[in-house]
Amino acid sequence: MNIMLFHSTYGLRPAVHAAADRLRAAGHEVHVPDLFEGRTFETVEEGMAFQEETGRDELLKRAVLAAAPYSERGLVYAGFSFGGSLAQHLAFADEKARGLLLLHGTSDIADDVSVDDLPVQLHIADPDPFETHDWLTAWYLRMQRAGADVEVHRYPGAGHLFTDPGLPDYDAEASEQAWRSALGFLDSL
Description:
Layout: E1 2-6, H1 14-25, E2 29-31, H2 44-54, H3 56-71, E3 76-80, H4 82-93, E4 99-103, E5 119-126, H5 133-146, E6 149-156, H6 172-188
Parallel strand pairs: 1-2, 1-3, 3-4, 4-5, 5-6
Helix pairs in contact: 3-4
């Protein structure tokens, strides 16, 4: 599978490279763009301030430009938190998208969006301060209305970015469970 993997609001940290290596070891081709141009952050607040300063449109443009050389072959879009929201936007705009793997984050869905049975897998903490139960219920219903084939995995007690061993949210058991499911999902595409 050809995968475009987007980093979180913390930037392109070692955990993202480790995730890409894990996917490569499973036989996938993985592209990991640095949308923050070398910047990484210690806190969510610092990363969000950088995003605001850079602008959502600029970051989306960088994501589109990173994916463009590979999209003709059919990409699985994937991302961590903020990167998941970008992945979702790109997957919905790319008629050749093969799948969408969301780790820790989702995004708004326009009313007129339509995809044809796009396979989607979401891995999310339960509860998650950035992805409330009400939000996730509405997101799930809108994804289904758009035509996506959605699978949601919840991890009770895990922190928001529970797959990143370099952050306080890390949960080894939840992380391993998420990666087993994600690799199974990718193998099914």
